[in-house]
Write a structure and sequence with these properties.
457 residues, mainly alpha, Annexin V, domain 1, repeat, calcium-dependent phospholipid binding, Annexin_sf
């Protein structure tokens, strides 16, 4: 299978062992320093997501402006690239004021993989900002303030109770109800269950189910925000710290999501997330994550600033390859406070100026948790869907399945069906098999049923 515009099948012209060897322009795959295909360009296998256009309530809003975009190598002397994907309006001359309705990388309504937003705009979207002011990135579904939605959860709440009442448990019924709810519906369902049956849904699931099946159902019942909060707490409790969990939850998040996570963490555990992080990480990595938790990242709608890109590239070079030793905190600050479009531009220009992938520079100049965190931020910005596909494969590769990571990642991506559709397409492109078939090979029983349902099978 080849994509529109990509003449060569994956792997024919590209040497994975030499990331510096680039395929001819327009061929796939993009590696670090190149640009991902258009939003929605990764086609999911036939019969899978995304949901059909015009689906009823429960369909997810269109992708946020940060969720990728198509960037081809620009002509010499031009940045950002000027060619827009099919269906987008002609690009503005470089240096013109940004178009508020369509930033770089944002899909146009009706583009494949991005159904039109629901009436009234995206969930939790703020009112339009005054001209010249960059509007804040809205929170992800489930991270914003409570909303009134048109969903009567009575039947679903009763179905859950019947599935767990008496002798035995109807596992299939639990999956059918919980795996098909969006973040806003799950909040209503949990509250309805507790009001009607005077029982806590999470407590009942923990009593009636076991192992990774239980863990996955509990993640669904808590919703994305509270799952993040509880997973962070567990990652920092007891001996050792699960740094990889902290990376998954905290890195490359919007300011609005980070503020929601910090607030919910404080309310749930009566502890400051920043203080807990300080006690768990080494000195410089601690400073890196405190920069992240400051939630001062450039908003997704902020236009790429070419002068700042040039300065950031030179700062990174002088902090790494251009000196004896490495100024780790300066690099951490740049990758933690720039938005994805700016980081993508930095990676592109670094390759142009120094003929080295920024990914390789970070890999050689850093080590340990800080290296992993910086690579996470960079790879997410360069191609968020391919990065997510790699994260999912990493949780299944090698001897044994990293079940904790597989469950948490599958459920985290399942909350946004448009993003999941692109991740599944990226996974198919990279690994030549569907994500669902790969999950089936690594799981079994009720656990398998839940994971496959969450990826839309």
């Amino acid at each position: 299978m080849s994509y529109q515009g990509y003449g060569q099948p994956y792997g024919r012209k590209y040497n994975l062992r030499n990331p510096g060897q680039y395929p001819p322009q327009g061929q796939y795959p993009p590696q670090h320093g190149q640009y991902p295909p258009p939003q929605g360009q990764y086609p999911p296998p036939q019969g899978q997501y995304p949901p059909p256009q015009g689906a009823p309530y429960g369909q997810y809003p269109s992708a946020q402006p940060s969720q990728g975009g198509y960037y081809q190598s620009p002509p010499p002397g031009q940045y950002p690239p000027q060619q827009a994907p099919y269906g987008q309006p002609p690009p503005q001359p470089y240096g013109a004021p940004p178009q508020h309705q369509q930033p770089y990388g944002a899909p146009t309504p009706g583009q494949y993989g991005a159904p039109p937003p629901p009436p009234g705009g995206q969930y939790g979207a703020p009112p339009p900002a005054p001209y010249g002011q960059v509007p804040p990135t809205p929170p992800s579904p489930g991270y914003g303030p409570p909303q009134i939605i048109q969903y009567d959860a009575t039947a679903d709440a009763d179905a859950l109770r019947r599935a767990m009442k008496g002798f035995g448990t109807d596992e299939k019924a639990l999956v059918n109800v919980l795996a098909r709810k969006d973040p806003l519906q799950i909040e209503v369902l949990r509250a309805t269950y507790e009001r009607r049956h005077k029982r806590r849904l999470v407590d009942d699931l923990e009593k009636e189910t076991r192992s990774w099946f239980e863990y996955g159902l509990v993640q669904l019942a808590r919703g994305p925000l509270m799952s993040d909060v509880h997973n962070l707490y567990k990652a920092m409790s007891g001996p050792g710290t699960k740094e990889i969990v902290m990376n998954d939850i905290l890195l490359s998040r919007s300011n609005a999501d980070l503020k929601a996570i910090k607030s919910a963490y404080q309310q749930t555990f009566r502890r400051s997330l920043e203080n807990d992080v300080k006690g768990e990480l080494s000195l410089k990595t601690e400073r890196h994550f405190l920069i992240v938790l400051n939630a001062n990242r450039a908003e997704d709608m902020a236009p790429v600033n070419p002068q700042q890109v040039e300065e950031d590239v030179m700062s990174i070079y002088r902090s790494t390859e251009g000196k004896l030793g490495t100024d780790e905190i300066l690099v951490c600050s740049i990758l933690s406070t720039r938005n994805d479009n700016q980081i993508r531009a930095i990676a592109h220009l670094y390759k142009q100026k120094f003929n080295r992938d920024l990914d390789n520079v970070i890999s050689s100049e850093f080590s340990g948790h800080m290296k992993d965190a910086l690579l996470f931020q960079l790879r997410h910005a360069v191609d968020r869907y391919m990065h997510a596909a790699q994260l999912l494969e990493d949780s299944m590769a090698g001897l044994g399945t990293k079940d904790h990571l597989l469950v948490s990642r599958v459920i985290r991506f399942h909350w946004d069906r448009n993003e999941l559709a692109n991740i599944k397409g990226a996974y198919q492109q990279r690994y030549r098999k569907s994500l669902a078939s790969r999950i089936r090979s690594e799981t079994s029983g009720d656990y398998q049923m839940l994971m496959v349902a969450c990826v839309g099978e």
